[in-house]
């Protein structure tokens, strides 16, 4: 399930993506005919995964990673599906090494911040 539409920009420290899937009535994360704001964590996690893949372009083979924790999560809205137009998902690498990265993420609709928080990501789950 790919929720993101485009990578708008990226660098070694940051990625910015957009998404339109929050308005899709067939979005697989919808429940009770709505897309709750907490599902934004999955949008951010996918941006982090794309960032990792872009950084590892020269690696021989992709590795399996996973989200280990989410901290400082602030939901400034109750739902995402009532936001018309694209969402902008930004993930910025705060610290990390070859095995673990701490990201800060924000999801905006226009200039309004809808969701923000931090997430830890293990990059090579097979080594644990």
From TrEMBL:
Pfam families: ApeP-like. This is 3-hydroxylacyl-ACP dehydratase. It comes from Hydrogenophaga aromaticivorans.
């Amino acid at each position: 399930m790919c929720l993101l539409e485009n990578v708008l920009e990226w660098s070694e420290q940051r990625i910015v993506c957009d998404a339109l899937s929050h308005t899709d009535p067939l979005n697989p994360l919808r429940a009770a005919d709505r897309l709750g704001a907490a599902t934004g964590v999955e949008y951010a996690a996918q941006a982090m995964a794309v960032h990792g893949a872009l950084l590892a372009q020269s690696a021989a083979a992709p590795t399996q990673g996973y989200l280990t924790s989410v901290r400082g999560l602030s939901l400034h809205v109750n739902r995402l599906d009532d936001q018309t137009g694209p969402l902008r998902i930004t993930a910025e690498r705060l610290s990390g090494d070859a095995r673990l990265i701490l990201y800060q993420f924000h999801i905006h609709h226009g200039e309004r911040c809808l969701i923000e928080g931090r997430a830890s990501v293990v990059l090579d789950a097979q080594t644990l």
